[in-house]
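Sharing a chain and its predicted structure for anyone who wants a worked example. Both blocks are below, sequence first, tokens second.
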Amino acid sequence: MSKQVIYNPEARQRLLQGINAVARAASVTLGSAGPAVMIQHRTAGIMPIFTRDGVTVANAIVMEDRIADLGARMLRDVAGSVSREVGDGTTTAIVLAQSLASEALKSVAAGFHPLQLQKGMELALTLVEQHLQKTAVTGVTEDWLEKIALVASKGEAGVGKLLSQALSELGDDGSLSFQLGNGRDDQLEVVEGIHYEQGFLSPYFITDKTRAEAVLERPYILLYDREISDFIDLVPILEEVAAEGRPLLLIAESVSEKALAGLLLNHVRGVFKVVAVKPPGFGDGRINRLSDLAVLTGGTAILEAHALRLEQVKLTQLGQAQRAVIIEGSTTIIGAAGAREPVVERIEALRRTLAVVRARKPGEGSASGNLHEAEELEERICVLSGKTGTFSVGGITDVEIKERLVRIENAYLSAKAAMEEGVLPGGGVGLFRSQVILNEIIAENAEQQQGIAIIKNALGAPMRQLLVNCDLNSEEVMMRLCAQADPQFAFDMQHQCYGHFLDIGIIDSVKVVRMALRKAVSVVGTLISSDTVIMNVPDLSIMDGYSPEWAAATREDPRL
């Protein structure tokens, strides 16, 4: 295939066109006053996507000019990388990257060496990151988390309270999942114990008809990865369990109708108390889920790889718990009897694996495959942690609910990030005030000094964009902030008032801001150090003489 070679300055200018196009579309979503963007769905007849999320806007833009699209892809990668690591701050990263790219390319055109500019920018980045971490306010309280969630969710007070409650109840190990709600109001449900979405195999297992649930007190738990085809195979272990005067929770891949009939008959007659359910997960992942449950309950998963038959299972191989509650669509196991140390070790191992999956760059494996693997690991960590929450996002229309779901999930991730590294003044003030530390830095040469100046100028870009979105005078606000010596003095753009950032509730997560700046500097450094673009020239000769009308007219009728 032939190649097209594009040299500078044309290459960089066309790349900048793509960057500016994405930044212009996404930057309007920054802040609580930022408007939304409507994106046509790729399938005709389906409602458009209504979003105020920067990464969603960036991913929707594909430029006709293939060189410009490379620039647009750089911003898509920046926003996607920030989204994968901290969830929030994608629009801030786009605004920073656009400001850095514009000034850096001007400097390169003026004769500054790209690699020296890049060194200066990296030096400034290191100093700003250290300053942000040093000045961060740590010891995050529930009130702060509520305010962070309020800002990140674009000013929805009720959402901030629910997310703060979720973080308080779930802690560091718990996980919160988000789903489309069925009503107008948001709902939060936090469940203690092991919880997963698989219910009883038959309503005849119900023990509490009023609540339509099967409740087992101090059950033994049998974990089996194959189909139970014959009730006779279960008789030995059922007799041992019955001799202890305790019920059995049977978690198996499937139970045949013949075996299920035997279980139900004895259960209804009161010979022994048993409930059969399926394990969590799907496909090959169920083996891992059964192993997780075995660690939690202190039992042994009876797997096909062990070559152990069902009739050979002993009482000592069963897990135990204080209580199990099974309804039509879910199973909850409370007070699992497994030792805590193996559970903690497994959680840490899964977190290390999850970090590796999240660190994969675009092109390393299937995007959907990586996402599925990360979600599977997150769900396993959630089950092992012993606490899980579900946030049902409400609204009037599907378009509204889907738009709110993205915002609320980002707000939750931003609040979680604040718990890791602390908080700083929001509304772009934290980055804007970091300009001070770059004033007295003297680099090795003038080119590196220019790189520092580029970073210094970009640090004010998010605040300027926020003020533009709020239709406020940016120069007036910035002068007022500069005149105030207190570094924690901030500006509430929605209510147009000044004050201590914790008092007025304008709070940002240090980790979110820091990652947005780091990713922006990284991609712009790559941009300015590239001098030539080489592209494949598509071969269109294969379409010569092709007529869609002729093809349709000569196609055979499949009904003949």
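Comments welcome. The longest strand covers residues 220-228.
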